[in-house]
Amino acid sequence: xxxxxxxxxxxxxxxxxxxxxxxxxxxxxxxxxxxxxxxxxxxxxxxxxxxxxxxxxxxxxxxxxxxxxxxxxxxxxxxxxxxxxxxxxxxxxxxxxxxxxxxxxxxxxxxxxxxxxxxxxxxxxxxxxxxxxxxxxxxxxxxxxxxxxxxxxxxxxxxxxxxxxxxxxxxxxxxxxxxxxxxxxxxxxxxxxxxxxxxxxxxxxxxxxxxxxxxxxxxxxxxxxxxxxxxxxxxxxxxxxxxxxxxxxxxxxxxxxxxxxxxxxxxxxxxxxxxxxxxxxxxxxxxxxxxxxxxxxxxxxxxxxxxxxxxxxxxxxxxxxxxxxxxxxxxxxxxxxxxxxxxxxxxxxxxxxxxxxxxxxxxxxxxxxxxxxxxxxxxxxxxxxxxxxxxxxxxxxxxxxxxxxxxxxxxxxxxxxxxxxxxxxxxxxxxxxxxxxxxxxxxxxxxxxxxxxxxxxxxxxxxxxxxxx
Length: 469
What we know:
This protein is mainly beta. The chain contains four helices and 34 strands. The chain has a six-stranded mixed beta sheet with strand order 4-30-29-28-27-32, with no helix packed on it. A five-stranded mixed beta sheet has the order 3-26-25-24-23, with no helix packed on it. Strands 10, 11, 12, 13 and 14 form a five-stranded antiparallel beta sheet that branches.
């Protein structure tokens, strides 16, 4: 664990809010209520080729690697599905809540959703709330950053019924810390400092799965640690025992995604070229249970895992890849044949005497190949709209956010329903907060409008959905 820094001297930021261009053509207004420190990491992630030279000097031959190959005829587009007349035949509104305008929401299980609640004060900038998905009541569980006296503010959070993980940053001195604490109902346990870093490392992206907090640590492209591996770490809620779960030679493609009792990430495949490997991990054991390698240089902006296996999204168009090449969200129409990675992983790793050590866990190329071949053999679904988040499963309904709306898709029945939009929700409309496989899905939007002859409506509307009976 890095040594604790002495308390920095506070400075006053005078720069006015600006707009930052993000991948996919989006813009984010930088204000005190957004991820000022973390957004820099998002922008850096869009750069191409980071760490490629370093990986090339340490990796295996590309000839041993198999990549996903899906012909165009094996891909079903959302436009070919039947559009249902009423969304209520797919999902029903089980509850809703009005939270402060500008609230951000993330949901990783069927019990609770984590909320980053903006305040009307200069200190603190944000609080952490916990939204109960049964009662639709939000309880503030963390009112101040642990390091508030040293200039730190809360910037990101994830939670499930077992615990909460959050990041705190002093953006003026480019310092960040990762904390986690167990949950008992709405009572937060003792925070544990799990990690900390400076300008050489991006503020980590977070995930929760089962009884564990996870965070992904990437080196800054222009920092002193730029040739270091990207790391996925974890700690059981209630402990400060940090374990390295996965290491990637070069930068991981996107943030890890909570999938209930598991999570998905996209490290670089263990080979000399730039190949991203969709990787599914069991939260309790840390073992890789599924893997699939994308064609060369195809970098997903989001990845997840559900009832039919991996899903991933592109915010750009590639001129190769046959059926898997266009903007939008992809996932199999049916689950591929299950393959066991455990035995092969142990055998192959033991053979790699130069790199087989507990400090750099990874999945060898030979172990990823069976999963890749299985995914190449099944039909795929393509939701052709600009993606903003990973999909989730609400019962047997696939929930996808693309373009300016959220849809519920019945893959087996080849039909879909569009969820209703809320008046005054602006250009972005609904965001999909959920990423897991469960019986509830959460969406939210920030509403700002004044009806004729009425009072201004300005709040964050969170809606909780369940499968129709």
